[in-house]
Specification:
This protein has 308 residues and is an alpha/beta fold. It has a single domain (3-304), classed as Rossmann fold (3-Layer(aba) Sandwich). The chain is built from twelve helices and eight strands. The protein has a six-stranded parallel β-sheet, sandwiched between helices. The longest helix has 25 residues, at 3-27. The protein binds thiamine diphosphate and magnesium ion. Thiamine diphosphate is lined by residues 65, 113-115, 142-146, 173, 175-177, 241.
Length: 308
């Protein structure tokens, strides 16, 4: 497929993610969404580029900020809205909500609200792939704040010692809630990964869907050959940490801090493509919301099924 056709396909998915999250913003005041939401507006290119750089049967684990990864990996949209609504038609019967989206049939095995908790799950999955002689890889996506957790270090160490096919993807939006990275971290990820003998790359152009895709393809190839890899991608969160508003009025950051990124954001720059694709995408979102609205609430027995 020509570069242009690939870009258009990926751009469409990124726009779908943004328009889905903008619909969530519209719906949120009605209180029909029964779940806290961590929006990824600004970060869509990462989800889309990463997922397209993987094979369909590669397994991914993600975080509470995972609407984009769910959609880019191919999770069904109607079941996502129903999940946010807490309805029976949700991908997990309405019991998981926004923070724990999963779609095993397309390789998103889980997401978690507990920071860094899915890293060892990916390492274990990769170990299983290696032991079974498969050429699949496991991918864990996490924020810059997650690298401060002890389990991040344990996961890197174990992955390096066991040489398992796991790709660590850090979405560096420079923030953990309201806290900036320089006041939290005394290390840089590439040097830190090197201490474990793990190769890495830091991609500054996290707005660039094609660059993210290419970086992921190259990293995934190394991982498939049998070594873990850390890919750090710089990105920008436009909205507040959790919820559907902005947070510039808290004065821990200014709107200027996202301006440089916004100037490069394809979803803001490529207005012709946005105009061309929006009507069709809106119809897709309307249908998914209608599905969620029509889906019944789970009954007591259903609520207690699959719950430990
Ligand atoms: C183990 C754990 N500690 C603390 C929290 C509270 N918490 C929720 S999100 C967050 C910040 C994480 O930042 P980062 O990993 O950079 O992800 P981002 O929200 O920027 O995507 C914290 C500390 C948590 N959910 N889990
Ligand atoms: Mg962060």
């Amino acid at each position: 497929m020509k570069e242009e056709a690939i870009y258009r396909r990926l751009f469409r998915t990124a726009l779908l993610i943004r328009l889905v999250e903008e619909r969530i913003i519209d719906l949120y005041p009605s209180d029909r969404i029964q779940s806290p939401v961590h929006l990824s507006i600004g970060q869509e290119s990462v989800a889309v580029g990463v997922c397209d750089g993987l094979r369909p049967d590669d397994i991914m684990f993600a975080t509470y900020r995972s609407h984009g990864f769910y959609i880019a990996k191919g999770g069904p949209l109607d079941a996502m809205f129903a999940e946010l609504y807490g309805r029976k038609g949700g991908i997990s019967g309405g019991k998981a909500g926004s923070m724990h989206l999963s779609a095993p049939e397309v390789g998103l095995l889980g997401s978690s609200a507990v920071v860094a908790s899915s890293l060892p799950h990916a390492v274990g999955t990769a170990l299983s792939f290696k032991r079974r002689g498969l050429s699949r890889i496991a991918v864990t996506v996490f924020g810059d704040g997650a690298t401060e957790e002890g389990v991040y270090h344990e996961s890197l160490n174990f992955a390096a010692v066991m040489k398992v096919p796991v790709l660590f993807i850090c979405e560096d939006n420079g923030l953990a809630v309201h806290s900036h990275r320089p006041v939290r971290q005394s290390y840089r990820l590439p040097e830190h990964a090197a201490a474990y003998g793990i190769k890495s790359r830091r991609l500054e152009e996290g707005w660039d869907i094609m660059a993210v895709r290419q970086a992921t393809l190259e990293a995934a190839e190394k991982v498939r050959a049998g070594e873990p890899f850390v890919l750090e991608i710089v990105t920008s969160r436009y909205k507040e940490h959790v919820g559907v508003g902005e947070d510039f009025h808290f004065n821990y950051r200014s709107s200027d801090s996202v301006e440089a990124f916004k100037k490069r954001d394809p979803l803001l720059v490529d207005t012709k493509l946005v105009e061309a694709l929006t009507p069709e995408i809106m119809r897709e979102i309307d249908a998914a919301v209608a599905f969620a609205e029509a889906s019944p609430a789970p009954g007591r027995a259903e609520l207690l099924t699959d719950v430990i």
